[in-house]
């Protein structure tokens, strides 16, 4: 646990030091759960978005993109259920005046029990050495089984109470478990209340005729309300998809874990409209396809797992998360939901407009079913960034910090470095840079010794360093150094483009999905 926390702290400071993520309005001490992407971060974020867009939109003839507005007609959110049901259970501590999510307090309590299980496992592993069988130990050790049962009972009761809107029982559970305010230790709690997560604002110049609107809490509804517009103007045939990326806003009560849970974040969503009855097939297919997309980035199959939802949202007939092994454990990265015809039917009902599809093969109209894939861009950023940050022990006894970003996503693909700032080397380096920048984002650096510059580029995540030295002036060759292997090769300037392209091209990476 301490090791994980340590790694997370390193991620936070590295993100700031190397110009990836800054706290929003930092000079005013920041705004909770709101972040800015800095000069390198904005490039990484854009590359992740482009990688998703290429795979989801441009590689599929039957998927198109849109960019709907953040502000939508307020009835949208009535129809989608967000006005009535997009709530978190909230509890205040009367002494500290701090506000918490009641379910998170209970889940954190369970995490502590899980910590005790992990301690027992570590102890037993030490005691039994090579003969230790973790699965068997978890299934048979009396104390551990007791802890597991306790977690199951607590979570089952909480789930049931939340489903039945029995908030009094949620409070009772907190009291029975003697859960205290994590900051002050006080157990003096208020009742549990539902808290709507949507940010509201007003449209209109005067108070009398202004309209209450919301900042969208998900991008999906912009797709649903445009379903027929896109289908008709694009002459789309079912099955087909509509994708979009864009900002979403949620007034999250628990603001922590850096960019994992933000109040303003970006989603990349795709709604796939299918014939009723075929949704299970498409749901399974999209689960598989989306996992392949993640795996194509080479961040380790062991770092992903599916979590199938036992308790389904009112609109879903199946749902699963792709969870990623973040520095604080496995957590949701992406959701795949079979949303039935709930959304289109609800918008039909509230708008009075027919949102049906005429199927020429079947010669009838119907409301399509929808399978949705929904991933948080910021979470994906955190997954990529935290997974890539490593400290490497070198043969000479020193360590180096390397950001081993999948090179297709790296902000800069290469850095061009003149060995010294004289003898005409900067001029040649600039010329190489001018040529490469038409195809790649390239960085120029002539400050400090070349070894120091290599380290800087390693830590910033740049896959290649190209060094121009005195030999370059006579033989038109340069040294190209690879970030991950540190291998250096002498190559012709004329071959640089091909060498870089072979490694960083979207095609090189996305083709791994087909393997
Ligand atoms: N349209 C479906 C939908 O919005 P969701 O599970 O609420 O489903 C989808 O959100 C994804 O959006 C999540 O898997 C997560 O990656 C991202 N996400 C949700 N809330 C977030 C937040 N507060 N901060 C950052 N990302 C968030």
From TrEMBL:
ATP binds at residues 250-252, 260-265, 332-333, 376-379. It is an enzyme of class 6 (ligase). InterPro entries: aa-tRNA-synt_IIb, aa-tRNA-synth_II, aa-tRNA-synth_II/BPL/LPL, Anticodon-bd, Anticodon-bd_dom_sf, Gly-tRNA_synthase/POLG2, Gly_tRNA_ligase_bac, GlyRS-like_core. The keyword Protein biosynthesis applies. The keyword Ribonucleoprotein does not apply. Its EC number is 6.1.1.14. Keywords: Aminoacyl-tRNA synthetase, ATP-binding, Cytoplasm, Ligase, Nucleotide-binding, Protein biosynthesis. GO terms for molecular function: glycine-tRNA ligase activity. It catalyses: tRNA(Gly) + glycine + ATP = glycyl-tRNA(Gly) + AMP + diphosphate. It is found in: Cytoplasm. Residues 177-418 form the Aminoacyl-transfer RNA synthetases class-II family profile domain. Substrate binds at residues 101, 218, 265-269, 372-376. Homodimer. Belongs to the class-II aminoacyl-tRNA synthetase family. Catalyzes the attachment of glycine to tRNA(Gly). This is Glycine--tRNA ligase.
